[in-house]
Amino acid sequence: MGGEVNAKMLTARIRKERRSTGATSFVLDVSIEVSPGITILFGASGAGKSTLLDCVAGLARPDEGRIAAGGDVLFDSERGINIPAPKRRTAYVFQTLALFPHLSAEENVSYGLMDLREEERRKRVEAILKAFRVEKLRKQRPGEISGGEKQRIALARSLVTEPRVLLLDEPLTGLDAELKAAIVDDLRAWNTAKGIPILYVTHTREEVDALGERVIALDNGRVVSAGAPMDVLDAPRRKKLAQAAGFENLLSATVLDLREADGVMRVRLGESACEIEVPLGYAAAGNRVQVAVRAGDILLATERPHGLSARNVMEGRIASLEQRGAMAIARVDCGVAFVVHVTPGAVRALELTAGRRVWLVLKTHSCHLVE
Amino acid sequence: MEALWLSMKLASCVAAILLVIGMPVAYWLAYSNWRGKFLLESLVALPLVLPPTVLGFYALVAMGPRGPLGRLWIALFGHGLAFTFSGLILVSVLYSFPFAAQPMIASFEGVDRKLLDASAVLGAGGLRTFCRVILPLSLPGVVTAAVLSFAHTLGEFGVVLMVGGNLAGVTRTVSIDIYDRVQSLEYGEANRMALVLLAISFSVLCVVYAVNRRVWTPWAAK
């Protein structure tokens, strides 16, 4: 991110210690810049994502730091500035949505507009209900509304106040992909006119792929990387992040030898006889490394494959096969256990069953080294 | 009948006063993070375990012409507090305080904190959040508080006897009237009064449990 000064940008430098009676105390220590548009805040649960949002919204107080948005300082420990939450004009959609159960959809949406004149308030509520396609539900209470519609109303309630920042804490969990995409489209459409920074928290890889323009990856209270989704997530440098990013296979390995000229090195997986080739990393022969492989990046064959560019072919046996939605999950024992995703069609065509002998094919560059 | 009317008047006044005083106290007890909170919590619950005579005794001493409260009252109104209706209200408020505070504390604490956060982020200050979110969602607790403090005041005996004495039309409440009649062997009269009190107490508790069982509610269930 450049040094350009954008008045609409959200900048936050936050240090906050979570004191607990136990031995493990958690420290959030981050410095982020969020420009207008959607930025994904990605990380496993417990990485500090919600604490970060709470600090920006004024629901939690950082021990030290500075938070500014829309050209105004919201918090500055050095200057003793701490604008209270109601005056920050940050919109926040919680994971639980927190719609007021005793108020109708319309009353929920107009909750943040109580200081406006009746006429102006009605006009704004009308417009936002329409923008999020929930104008038919205005008289219903949250208890009578479906999940996706509740999420739309929660978004409308937050955005109708014309906030300078929008914070979304996994607001679309539990929705199917199609519905999720439709809501995000409406959110994007709304934001083309407003152009505010939107910080979108998620811990699922799919959402990053669906939404991501920019990603900030958080692990154990620190920013571990920031940038385009591909750069941030496809080269996992931390174990937890790798697991969260959907690398179903995380294997410990021992480096056998380095082949600098080819840009690869050979490693032995675990205690098995399995040897594979992985991209060259900062390691020496004898070092222990972690190798991350996505279950969807592994090919499965029922005969020993020939004439392949892929360097890694391992023989094994299917330990279990499980159908999950439009995907089958095979656990294959090659001396080390691999999780492999195949389509139900492939299961039928190859007559895959538990106990069947198979070969796994792995491209060198599908193997990622984890620091 | 005069005694019943007096008891009803006393109980209504006490319930109304307790709602007004009890609500901010309950709010504070439900949401404060102060470490010494348990002190006030214990104080509020004290009348539950204290014998009415103990409370009545100290109240009487304080209200007497040489007690601090009594002197203040004389200076302000020209007469003492002991053995008056006002004195009865004051001591009843103290005595029924936990019955008003506890249900309100419990229901305030039961409100989802995220709703309070949502309200704050949407620009509402503490008072507005209380009126628009906490209070409507705690309505069963508030109704319970009002009803219980009413019922409890209606049935009190020891404290009234200590502080109010037994002055017809001024401090002779139903429960004291019943006691009087039993003493003078008017069992028929005593029974009539006792039945009325029994009926009132039972119906009042029905209201409490119905409200809390959500037999009827002013909003749709979550």
Keywords:
heterodimer, A: 371 residues, alpha+beta, Rossmann fold, OB fold (Dihydrolipoamide Acetyltransferase, E2P), six-stranded mixed β-sheet, five-stranded antiparallel β-sheet, 9 helices, 21 strands, 23% helix, B: 222 residues, mainly alpha, MetI-like fold, 11 helices, disordered C terminus
Describe this structure in words.
The complex is a heterodimer of chains A (371) and B (222). Chain A has 371 residues and is of the alpha+beta class. Chain A folds into 2 domains: 10-235, Rossmann fold; 249-364, RNA polymerase II/Efflux pump adaptor protein, barrel-sandwich hybrid domain (OB fold (Dihydrolipoamide Acetyltransferase, E2P)), CATH 2.40.50.100. Helices cover 23% and strands 35% of the residues of chain A. A 6-stranded mixed beta sheet of chain A has the order 7-8-9-3-10-11, with helices on both faces. In chain A, α3 crosses α4 and α4 runs parallel beside α5 (177-194). Chain A is globular and about 75 Å long. Chain B is mostly helical and 222 residues long. Chain B has one domain (2-212): MetI-like fold. Chain B is built from 11 helices and no strands. Chain B has helices at residues 2-31, 37-49, 52-63, 68-77, 85-110, 113-121, 126-137, 139-155, 158-164, 174-183, 187-212. Chain B is globular and about 65 Å long. Chain B starts with a helix and ends in a 10-residue tail after the last helix.
